[in-house]
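Dear support,

I submitted the protein below through the web form. The confirmation email said the job was done, but the results page showed an empty box. After a refresh the structure appeared. I'm attaching both so you can tell me whether what I see now is the final result or a partial one.
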Amino acid sequence: MKCEIIVIGDELLIGQVTDTNSGYIARRLNPVGVDIMRVTAIRDLEDEIISAVEEAMSRADAVIVTGGLGPTNDDITKTTLCKIFGGKMIFSQSTQDNNDALFARMGKEMNSLTRSQAMVPDCCKVLPNVVGTAPGMIFKREGKMLISLPGVPYEMQKLIEDSILPLFERCATTDKIFHSTRIVEGFTESNLALYLADYEASLPSTIKLAYLPKPRLIRLRLTARGNDSEALYCDMYQATLKLDELLKDNIISYEDLTLQEILLRLLQERNLTISTAESCTGGGVASKLTSVSGASANFMGSVVAYDNSIKINTIGVSEEVIKEYGVVSTQVVEQMAKGVAEKMKTDCAIATSGIAGPSGGSKQKPVGTIAIGLYCCGETRSCLVTIPATSRDRNVERFVDLALFNMIKFIKG
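What the results page shows now:
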């Protein structure tokens, strides 16, 4: 089934809000045979909504629209869709009942604008929104379908899980889509493409290989499409076996996982605990780890040792070592890693100290320099790396990823 997504909102086009809805929709619907062909972002303007909807419906079997369903004057999606599909606005008692119950649970009083959320086009099927006031809507025309969902991510996601995913599972075509992902290190994108050239040429026509590079990592995705599930599965199985044999120890994950998920899984498999001592990353490594559900089984805690007094008095870094080698040094981060592991009583630890910029660099240690200390079961490793300096936020982000990546390599090694 071919599907297009339209995201509506001026805030998306001026960079005030980043569109995450289309990515979530694609990730959830693709496995049930829905091919997302295009994503379009438009303003809250009637003529632009009409144009985008008509064009999308001329190409796709289904169109999903998010945004513009709020109660304020700039939210015009509902009334515009009513015009497109030739209906009129009517009162929906079920929507009002849902919103009354929602406000009762919150202990708040509903105003007149929120009450207007119960007005819906008579030409749509209303989908209850149990976590918000704007209902979802399904419109049909000439065998095609348009689904309108709230732009608030958690409301949209709830409707996708409760109503839209089951709908597409029932009505999707017989085409099947399988994905298999490997996270690979030790190659540049071009070198990996050359290394896998013969393998890629040998793949059956139903399977395609895609390269998605990140610093120090490449995500390889095999995608199989066809209508014979059994044959497609067998082809994918053989393709992944060959790929795994070719890449062997360069594979750091056999699933599409983030670095923090890979690290926590390694810790879980080996029954190890971890802590962090962070200076330049300001708790960023700990934040990444605790973003993963279940992290508390292995992650014990963190010390943000930004000032030297905290490094010295809280985690036991030698003042003489700081004076001799400088705070951004392998000697200091090794002591930080070992010190926080002892303080937190963990098997492993990550320590960071660096120069995120835009000031603070020197000729010997320019902006973009990071010292990373690693401790695991009595062994210590460290490195001093300088990456091409960009913005402060980007430098910190790369420092965090580099620390997680090096810890994964350390444990696997």
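Response: this is the final, complete result; the empty box was a page-load delay. The chain is about 40% helix and 25% strand.
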